[in-house]
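User: Show me an example of a complex going from sequences to structure tokens.

Assistant: Sure. Here are the input components:
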Amino acid sequence: MRKYFKALCLTVSIFLVLVLLAGCGNSGNSGNSSEPAKQEGNKEEVVNLKHWVWLDNPNDPTFAQLVKEFNDTHPNIHVDVEVIGWNDFHTKLLSSVTGGSGPDTSSFKLTWQPEFIGQDALLPLDDFLKDWAGKNDVVDNLWDVMKYSDGKHYVMPWELQVLYMYYRPSMFKAAGINEVPKTWDEFLKAAQKLTKDTDGDGKIDQYGFGMRGARGGHEPWASFVLASVPGNTFFDDKGNCTLTTPEAVKANQFFIDLYRKYKVVPPTAPADGFNEIIANFKAGKTAMVVHHIKSSNGMIEQFGDDVDAFPVPAGPQGRWTSLGDTENVIYKSTKHPKEAFTFISWLSEKEQLLRWDKATGNVPVLKSLQEEEYFKNNRFMRASFESMPFAHVYPINENMGEWIESLWPAVTQQALEGKITSEEMMEKLAEGMTKK
Amino acid sequence: MKNIWSKSAPYLLIAPALLLMLLIIAYPIANSIRMSFLKYILFKPKDVEFIGFANYINALKDPVFRQALVNTVLWIAGGVFFQFFFGLILALLLNRRFKGRGFIRSIILIPWVTPGVLIGLMWKWMYDGNYGVINDILVRLHIIQNFIPWLAKSQTSLLAVIITIIWQGVPFFAIMLLAGLQAIPEELYEAGKVDGATGWQAFWHITLPMLKPTILVSTLLRIIWVANSVDVIYIMTGGGPGYSSLTLSVYTYMKAQKAMDFGYASTLAIYLTLMLSAIAFFYIRNLNLKEVR
């Protein structure tokens, strides 16, 4: 009896091993073999596309509705959308594209280009763009901003946000400031007047400016620095990094002094990220904060008319503000580049874009839409449009991922704490940006 | 025939499990050892090359690595010791009979079952320098004059995250040690009493020695978990300000997930593994488990 039992166990375990092995082998095979079969069968009829997207508000059904409409109006194309959380998006996309199992199309950030173009994963769109009707309607300079260093365009413009300064008119009035600051010197004066003890207990409880010293703070920071750099660029004509020039170091010192010397920002500034600067502003702790249009609905909800906006102040060399962007791209691995372009260009056409920008609060990438009453009457849209002429993106190279995520916060925090000088900070930043 | 069967049966029976283990444990370990000898940046698949010990040498030259190493030692030592200390006190309290003990035993588990990300977010707001409840209480008690931005100062940020991890780990020790305490036979205490042992002597000569195996196992486990934990620090400070609260595991995470530098990240992970193995080795060797039993 026992012998039989043993034999039975043995058989079962051998069976399990085989199933396990077969399982591994099988899934690999079926993945490869069934797909072409399906496509061959439906060759003339339906082309399937896989599209990856992140949504700032996953509860908003607009994107799903748009895609459904696209599928209904394009019977020969079927787009499957996969919504992936923003936090994992880049990592997931990069690893699956590198591993060869990526989507056909996806949303994309300009700064990711080197990583993907470096491994030849993106499809240049210039051949398609030539014939795209909306090409000349795209906001001036945007095609230049989006041109990759090899002169080709890999991205289809879709969403835009421009950073500008939010402020509280009532606080300005109470502090006796009648005009919004036009230069960084005026900004400092205003911030000093706005930093005060409002309830008479001897402690400062309102600060002029909500500085962002943690992750993501590099964008507002560059507005301080590049306003002093001739040409307002990170690299000069000869390709040298401008961050270590005396002008930039001095402007950076001004930024550090807002915290160390003038104390016009909350003492928590080195650790403040997005949530904190917005919470501080909404709680009335700060009178000015830099962010883009996507915060405006929340601000209006909180303050009604008591919140307004102006473009970031100018330095001796003009202004610079950061352009936030989301584009759509096509991967070279797709079997249907033409249909893929039909889809991503459709998303950026006037009608679809109007609905999308209304739902999400993005700045339209098309000139004809900026003329729409809906956008013209919005004071935050106006601040965005005014900021467009000097809105730029960060340099795009493969060092920037780490630079943005960990180098900038770390060295900025060290400088804010006085552990390194402005010059040392800029040297580290320049080195991090240019290293091979 | 029968002999072969009975000899091979155990191996065949564990084969499925072994195969799975190899697949999900041995392979990743082997692969990360391999990657630590490579220049391996995820988005430069063409530039992958063997560079020997270059990653290991670079790490030793890397000032951030050295600071992370010091922070890791403080993080483990401070974190685990106080978790154990408060856990032991809690376990001794819960080992007494009182009304509502069952209820209290279950609610003290809350910190332990809360996800790390949530703990990080919770404590981040509690420490907040503008509205944080901790600052508020300290000011009301007149212990401090002004709100302190705990997480924005390098003098306090590491301490702040260590306190958080202590809070998280105390229930683990409390429950483990409580189970150990309840396994101690009552007769030992009775015998002690007959011999005239005071409460302190009973604790020192009966409770502690009897608890030793539990203490050893639970602290060793906790050292490994605390050393590997990323979520709490990453959420609360991101390793900052500067690098003041950066531990090796957080640094590894950033190098792998943010810089996509898998080669260097693997090297960092292997340094951490070596460090933990060394701790585990001396731990088990110097405090002989068998002797206690």
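The lines above are the inputs; the final block is the predicted structure for all two components together. Residues 164-323+393-434 of chain A form a domain with the D-Maltodextrin-Binding Protein; domain 2 fold (CATH 3.40.190.10).
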